[in-house]
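User: hey, got a sec? need Bicupin oxalate decarboxylase/oxidase folded
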Amino acid sequence: MVCPSLVLLASALLVASSVVPLERELDSPTPVAREPEHPLHLAKRDAAGRKTRHLRPFYENTKRDITPPDVGQVATFPATGIPQPTRGIYGGIRTGGTNEEIDRQNPDYVTPPLTDNGIIPNLKWSFSLSHTRLLNGGWIREQTITDLPPSKDVSAAELRIAPNAYRELHWHRVGEWGIVLGGSGRITALDDEGRTYISDIKGPQNGTDPDTFTFPANFPHGIQALDDGLDLLLIFSDGDFDATGTTFMLSDWLVHTPIEIVAQNLGLSISDLKKLPSPDPYIFKSTVPPPQEGHADEQAKESPNGNVPNPYVFSLSQQEKVEAPGGWVKIQDSTRNFEASWAATAYVYVEPNGLRELHWHSQDEWLYIISGHGRATAFAAGSAARTFDLQTGDTAVFPIAYGHYIKNLSPTEPLIFIEVFKAEKYVDFSATQWLALTPSQTVADLLNITVAQADGLIKTKQILIA
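Assistant: Yep! Here you go:
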C-alpha cells in the first residue's frame, strides 16, 4: 500500500517542475517562430551521394593506425577511452583529466607526427569558440586578432540575417569582402562620387556556387535578407577589426549628434525625429517585406550622378573551374576577373582523399573551412613545423612564405574552403614545379633519387592532387 503522503509529495513535485517561476517568465524572450532549415547551404554540400554533416561532424574511424613504418599518419584513437599522447616508443599514458571531445577533434595536437618540430604559435581558430551576439533579427560571431594573433591582416565574421531583416546602414575604415553561405539578400551602396549600386546576392542553389561581393574602405552600404534569410561570411582587411573607429553605424552617429543639428541637416523637424532608434541596432527587422530575388530594380533609386560602373558582386557560378585531378579551384583577383579593392581569393574544392599540393604564398594566407575535414602542416623554416586538424567552421592563417599543404581526410566527402589574401593578385609557388624545373642532377643529389625520377616530376602547378 502506497503512503498517501508520498503520493501528495510526488504530485507536488511534478506540478512544481512544470511551472516556470514568474521572474523567469518576465525575463525570458518572447517566443518566435522557428526559422526553416536551409539545406542550400555550403556547409551541406553533397558529394558521392552523402551530405556533409553538422558543424562538428563525427569522423569515420578509418584505418590510420600508426604501424611501422611511421610516415606521419593521423593517429586513430580507440572508440572508447581517453585519447592517449603516444606514438610508437614516444609519449606516455595520460593519467590526468582532459577534454576528450576536443582531443578527438584534434588528433595532431595530441599525437603529432614526428616531423613536427620546434615552436610555432597556434594558427587555427574555430568559430564555435567565438562569442555570439544575439540580435533582433539575427546573430553574429567574429574572429579577430585577439582570437588568432598571427592573423594581422585579416579578420572575419559569420553573420545570420533573418528573413527580410536588415544589416543596418554603415561603413568601415577597412575593405570588406563576403561570400554567401546560404539564402539570398540584397545589397545597396554609394561610392565617393555619389553613384548608387543595388544588387541581389545568393548562396548555392541546386548545386551552383555562391556569390561573392566587396565594399571598398569607407564606402557606405547596407544588406537586407530576402525571404530565405541570409548566411554570410564577411572578411575584413585588418586583423584588429574590433578596434574603435573600424565600423561606423549611421543610426549610432545620428543619436549621438544634437537632434537640432540632425534635423537641420536632413531638412526635417525635431518632432519628425523623436523616434530615432536606439544606438547601434546592428540588425533590425523590416516593417514591409522587400521585392523578392530578381526584382532589386523595383527598389533602386536613381542618382543624379548615375550608377556605379564597376560591379560589387561576383557570381562564382558563372566562372569556369580550373580543373585538377584532385578537385578544382576558382581564383578571383584584380588581375583576372574581379577587383575586390584589396582581396585576392580562391574558392577551393578538394575531392575525397585529395591534396592541395605543397606550396607557399607571397602574402599571409587566411583560410576558412566551409565544409569537410582536413589536415595541414605549417613549415616556418629553421626546422620548425606544426600540424593542424581543420574542420567545418575553422579559420586558419599561414604567415607569409610558410610552406604548407591541405589534405582532405575524408574518403567520401569534399573539403571546401576559401583562401583570402590582402593583395591585388593571387600568387602561389609550387614545390613540385620548382623541383621539376631545376636541373635534374641537382634534384637527384638533393633528394637522393635517380635522375630519371627527377625527370619525371610534373613541370606545371598541380594545385590539387588526387
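Quick note: The chain has a mean pLDDT of 88. Let me know if you need anything else on Bicupin oxalate decarboxylase/oxidase.
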